[in-house]
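Example record for the data management plan.
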Amino acid sequence: MSQSILVTGSTRGIGLEIARKFNSCGWKVIATSRNEVDMTNFCKEFENKKNIEHFKVNFGSNAEIHQLKIDVENTHGLVDCLVINVGSGSGAIGIHSDFDQNLQLLDNNFFTAYRTLKILKDVLIKSDKSRVIIIGSAAGKVNVGAPINYSAAKFALASLLKNYVKILSKDGISLNLINPGHTFTKGGLWNKKIKLDPIGVQKMLTEYVPLNKLGLGSDLAEFTYLLAQMGSNYLNGAQIDLDGGLTIAH
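Corresponding structural encoding:
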């Protein structure tokens, strides 16, 4: 019997790479997005694929997450893995950034994860093979020049991890946090930066990233798959930096 995974924010960027990886490996994939255009493109890519479906969900809404919970329970019963990936780093940088924009960054990058974990934890199979994986950011650990409250929100995910590990562990469910560094995806932030200033990007990588290169969305997807496939869930409560050495070099 194939395993199932629910990936939030999975119709573009890192989430899309994760959905592709698990679908190619035979998992049942439940994808989500709030953007109609992204969902349309997603459906075109996967229209001839088996074991994949999508739901339109705004993870800023408790009501819509509750509805997703009902839909998943009715359609699949329970899932083996939940990947919490919703977030956005777009915004002005520095202390003079707009206050309302900062509140939005906190909501997009922390409270969406909190709502998702709080509401959807009950759709997980309660066994020693069940996983929750949160996608954070190296910006939550070191200063990479990201918007201040984006970094603050990603830092807060570590506290969420610490507080939920014992709660989920009672049901045999592991919870881990992956902090990717500068990660390239088609149409993503670094794709745009390379087009605008390839020399500047390479200079930054040479100065701050020991491997002197960007990570790829597929790198993160592969590692997420590795965590989900592990025969043991004894890796629990870990923060894993997937950043080419960026964090430890700061």
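Summary line stored alongside the record: Strands lie at 4-7, 28-33, 52-56, 81-84, 130-135, 173-180, 183-184, 215-216, 239-242.
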